[in-house]
Design goal:
Layout (H helix, E strand, L loop, with lengths): L2 H17 L10 H120 L2 E4 L5 E4 L28 H56 L5 H182 L9 H32 L11 H56 L6 H131 L4 H108 L5 H66 L2 H42 L6 H34 L1 H4 L3 H88 L4 H34 L1
Length: 1082
Amino acid sequence: MSTAAERKFINLRKRLDQLGYRQPLGVESLPLVEKLFSDLVHTTESLRSTKLSAGKTEKECSNFDAILEPYKAENAKLTRENNELHLEILKLKEQSDRHVKDLKATLRKVEHETADLKFLNNQYIHKIRSLERDNKAKTEKIQQLQEKNLQAVVQTPGGRKRNIPFRRQLMQIDQPVPPSGVSAYPIPQPDDPYVADLLQVADNRIHELQLEVAELQEKLEISERGVKNYSKQVELRDREIERLVLALDGGRSHDVISLESRSKSNEKLIAHLNLQVEYLQQTNRELENRIQDLLDTKQNVTSEVVHLSNKNEELCQELSEIDHLAQQLERHKEIVLETADKEIGEAKKEIKRKHSEIQDLEETIARLKSELCSCRREKERLADELFGKADEKQNFELLLNQLEQEKQRLSEKVENFEIIERELVLEVERMRLEYGIAFGDKSPSRLDAFVKTLEEDRDYYKRELEYLQKMIKRRASPCRRSPEKSEDMRLITRERDELQSMLDRFEKHMIEIQSNVKLLTAERDKLNVLYEQSQDELNRLRREAKQTLVSQSHVEEERDIALADFRRMMADKESLREKLKVQQEAAAFEKSKMEHDITELENTISGFETQQFELKSTISVLKERINSLEDELKIKSNKLAQTSDDSSQFKAELCSLQVLNEQLQQSLEDLQHQSSLKKDELQLAQEEIAKLEEKIDRLNHKSSSQDETVNVLRSTISVLDKEKDSLQETVDEKTERIACLDDNLANKEKTIANLRLTLSELESSVDQLKEALSNRDREIASLRRQLDASQVELAETGRVKEMALKENRRLQDDLAIMARENQAVTTELEEAVREKEEMKTRVHNYITEVSRFESLMASKHINAHQAYESQLSSITKNMSRLEENLKYEQEEKSSVLADLASMRELCMKLESSKELFSRQLTSKNMDYERVLAELEDIKSEAELLKKQLSSERLTIQNLETLLATSRDKEFQNHLSSHEKDSEIQLLKDKLTLAESKLTSHNREVSILRSKVAQLQTDYDVLKRQLTTERFERERAIQEMRRHGLSTSSVRTSSPLSSTMRSPSHSPERAIVRTTDRATAEK
């Protein structure tokens, strides 16, 4: 073999030995081995170049991601703006629909008003025609009565007048009838003939009494003038007598004077008697005239008596009717009182029940407030802990910065080590070539032990990974179980305990992080010690480089150990950063969750307060209604007493009129007797002078009595005038009130129609909400199935994780969009609640107005008994209808509030229901058109109902029985709806609990996934370290066998391996301990 071949063989053998290939090499296989060795060198260089190119491509990919991030942000911004524009379009559509709805409502209102005006016009035309017919019939009746009551009077040639009762009276009209001084009488209502008759009778009576008073005043003035004339004539006669006496006094004889005086006295006496005769004749004529006047007045009085007797009979009939009506009213009052007592008892029972419910609600509110205070205190404590965690985070960041500085320093040291290593390798090669020292082999027992420890660590980590997977599967299973207890307080306490456990878990994590930091500091200190030792050994190796080549292997081992420690520290630093990020995210999530829980509790408390306020308002309304019913009973009793007093006054007036009639008849008989005596005793004038004087005194006494009667009649006339004015005022008030009541009834009917429209709309919205609830249930079932699928997919690779992260980002964007849509929906719901409260206030106002109308109608019924029953029945029917509408509105309000709470809870969990809302919008538009069609049908039905209102008055009693049964049914329906609401609340609470558990489990799964990924990275690092250490250990052993060096360096490296192995257990074992503690606490 030539020297060139030997040189090639020796070089190839040395290089193979350096690489660890100790197998024997033949000369004939030298070219083949040389070729293979060159191929190996080429592949290693190509591998190195591919690694460099891969690093470059990774850097470029990272640069591409940084470039693509602003485009992604811009795309998200554009999608957000698109969603906002879509929401604005939807709002504009809703506003336009609302405006169209308002315009249609105003159009309907105007149509209703025109229909009401037409109906009122027809009613007024009917009333005018009926009044014309009544007026015509009354004029004919008056003419017939005048023909019947007048008697014929015949005057004889002697000046006497005779009454012929059987001769028909013929009337000759000399002049037209003078116009009456009374203004137009009030027009009576056709539905109330009794009121019209009373007013007409009173007006006729007042008119007749006024005429009689005028006649009597004229007669009184004539008599006063006659008395004054007679007194003047007596004074003139006395003066003439005195003058004649003075003229006749002179110087005549006593006899002549006595005769003359006697003759004068006789003449005087004759003149006086003549005067008296003339006076008596004049008085006789006056008395005859007075008798004639009295006869005329007697005839008038008889006609009045006949008329009054007829009126008396009519009044008796009306009094009997009034008594009958009063009895009916008393019976009706007793029935109303019984029903009112029953309703008051029921109302008291309901008030007691409401009081008990209010007390329970107040207790629950106080309990919730106390728990809210405790939650706030816990919130403050958690905020303080978060501040503490922020401080610890800052400390960790400082530690990380220090570690990065240490990393830079160690990297510099490693570069120095590499430079020293190159120098040492060159020196070792030089020494090998110069000296060719061979060393003996030693046993690799310590290396085997080190390999075994690494395998044990690998098995330990595998076992821990399997244990964690089992624990995750066990933890995922309880989320399928639905909680049995659904009470609010238990949920709140459970959430509080969960939050407390989460806080404890965070504290434990922080303690573990602190321990990890301490371990890292300890490892840093150990690395510093090792670095100092390595520096000392390098100095020693430099001194001993010429004696030994063992230092080369020792330096290489220490370099590898330092690199491994450096890599492990970097991995630990990255894992700590990931842990900090995870804990910060978990703390932020828990904080948001607690704030959400606090807002939910505040919303529930505000809901309870609004319910309490509503209950108080209903109690006050019931109290006002009870007071109004009591006031109505008092008013009715007072009015019944007034009617009885009025009937007694009417009876007393009738008795007084009968007494006056009897007195007038007696006076007429006396006057006839006196006239016959005067005709027989006209020749005995002297004897009758005393009688006539007595008669004059009697007549004076009678005139005084007549004056007294005139005064009495004047007082009665004034009283009647006052009564007439009061009656006129009451009639005017009644007409005004009737007009107001008609307007109010029309307004009430319109409001009832509007309420029915709103009720139909609310029913459609409730159906839509039920459909949405069923869709949410289906989505919940699908979410549960997805949860099961996610539990199966927990063992998938990092590719699924990246896809899940992308999906999570997309879902977060969708959640932001849905949150905005949820806010819009919540605003709409708040507007609906505000409209509902306005409708409630309107209904309360309508109830108060109806109570006021009842009092007004009651006052009208006292004055008009015949129309009382019909109007009372109509008002009671309207009241019952309004009460039913009020109860229905309250039930609808409670159901809508429950649905509102359910929607608020469901809207927070909506994730991808945008298309569903659009479909609901289209269905709502269809329902809106359907409701408009139904509204037109209801309008036609309302017009038919107005026509059928007269026939429905007969069916009031049946309706009352039906009303009682319907109230019972409504109460049962209310109970069933309350039970359903409680069941819905249970299901909602279960759903919220399941979702909270789902979120907690997802969060724990993400944490565990990060931990598993971290453990996987640690496992890969350890595996790489193990393989490198095995390779380097084998190479070191072969070199030691070849060179015969001692294993002192191995002994010195053993504590390093132990230090490397001991901290590797700590973080993962700490994590396992924390997971074990969490499972034990749960």
